[in-house]
Inverse folding.
């Protein structure tokens, strides 16, 4: 969670493109052994071409694409569920964003429960 409280959905969506870049960069660097491979991985991080949309598979690119689709549909909980499928360096890079997104999902769930409870109590008091 942020220092000022739980991140908003808008803030999480706004920061998602930067998350994508850091996740893909982390995965590239993790797979690069040796000086030349690290140089190539760093050069590739300057330009990222990736598939988007509803992509099947469990590789990082597919998971990120599905997360993005869930965010477009305003389904943060489903985006978090997809993000849990990331592995290795990609999962480590995504961890802070995912933790904030989970906190937002939990907060929204608690608010829904509280609203339902208040509505039920008000209904009882009136009837």
């Amino acid at each position: 969670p942020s220092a000022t409280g739980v991140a908003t959905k808008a803030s999480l969506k706004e920061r998602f493109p930067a998350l994508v870049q850091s996740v893909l960069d982390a995965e590239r660097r993790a797979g690069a052994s040796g000086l030349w491979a690290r140089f190539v991985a760093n050069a590739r991080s300057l330009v990222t071409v990736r598939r988007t949309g509803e992509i099947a598979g469990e590789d990082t690119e597919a998971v990120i694409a599905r997360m993005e689709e869930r965010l477009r549909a305003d389904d943060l909980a489903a985006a978090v569920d997809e993000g849990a499928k990331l592995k290795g360096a990609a999962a480590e890079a995504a961890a802070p964003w995912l933790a904030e997104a989970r906190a937002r999902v939990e907060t929204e769930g608690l608010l829904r429960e509280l609203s339902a409870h208040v509505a039920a109590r008000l209904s009882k008091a009136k009837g």
